[in-house]
């Protein structure tokens, strides 16, 4: 009888331990904070992957720009051809190289009167655009508030449903343990 009682006690303890681990895992899975964290991590990963696909990675840009700068100093005519072939399909690299060459030439040559006038006109023309872009950004934030609030409510409801399911499962598990202990 002692072996049977001890065996039952050990079975009950093992069941409690397994249920405790399961309940802990379920609680972690339905925790509102963990749900939000998982969604945020997915969004951050998606944004990072999208940025890398569109703009390329920083390592690729450094390599191409470094090779291009070295070649610009040694052979200007062949550099344009090689940079054109090397940057085909990578607009960020091409833009970076063009910007670097422009800065280099701009620092060497003084601006003409025509360039000074054009610069002033460009500054005057971009001022209204700045205000329009700020307004567009504000409108975008206003339009995104409602979907974000709906997503938060959905997460909250899911968490509440999960918590209720967890309570029900825990109660059922406790009843099962009591039944086994009393048998």
List keywords for this structure.
0% strand; mainly alpha; 6 helices; 183 residues
Give a concise summary.
By secondary structure, the protein is mainly alpha-helical. The protein has helices spanning 2-30, 32-55, 58-74, 76-86, 91-108, 113-182.
Structure description:
This protein has 6 helices and no strands. It is an all-alpha fold and 183 residues long. It has a domain at 1-30 and 112-183. α1 (2-30) runs antiparallel to α6. The two termini are 13 Å apart. The mean pLDDT is 76.
Largest sheet: none
Instruction: Quote the distance from N terminus to C terminus.
Output: 13 Å
Helical element count?
6
Q: State the helicity in percent bands.
A: over 70%
Strand content: under 5%
Please tally the β strands and state the result. Answer: 0
- Uncertain segments are none
Instruction: Please state the overall shape, judged from the principal axes of the Cα atoms.
Output: elongated
- Computed Rg: 32 Å
Structural class, please? mainly alpha
Order of helices and strands: HHHHHH
The averaged pLDDT comes out at 76
């Amino acid at each position: 009888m002692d072996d049977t009682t001890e065996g039952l006690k050990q079975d009950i303890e093992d069941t409690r331990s397994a249920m405790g681990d399961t309940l802990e895992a379920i609680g972690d899975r339905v925790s509102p904070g963990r749900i939000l964290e998982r969604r945020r991590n997915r969004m951050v990963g998606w944004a990072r992957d999208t940025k890398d696909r569109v703009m390329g990675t920083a390592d690729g840009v450094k390599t191409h720009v470094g090779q291009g700068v070295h070649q610009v100093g040694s052979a200007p005519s062949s550099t344009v051809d090689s940079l054109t072939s090397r940057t085909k399909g990578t607009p960020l690299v091409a833009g970076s190289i063009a910007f670097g060459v422009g800065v280099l030439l701009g620092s060497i040559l003084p601006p003409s009167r025509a360039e000074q006038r054009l610069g002033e006109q460009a500054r005057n023309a971009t001022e209204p655009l700045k205000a329009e872009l700020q307004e567009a950004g504000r409108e975008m934030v206003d339009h995104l508030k409602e979907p974000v609030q709906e997503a938060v409510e959905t997460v909250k409801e899911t968490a509440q449903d999960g918590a209720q399911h967890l309570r029900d499962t825990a109660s059922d598990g406790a009843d099962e343990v009591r039944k086994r202990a009393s048998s």
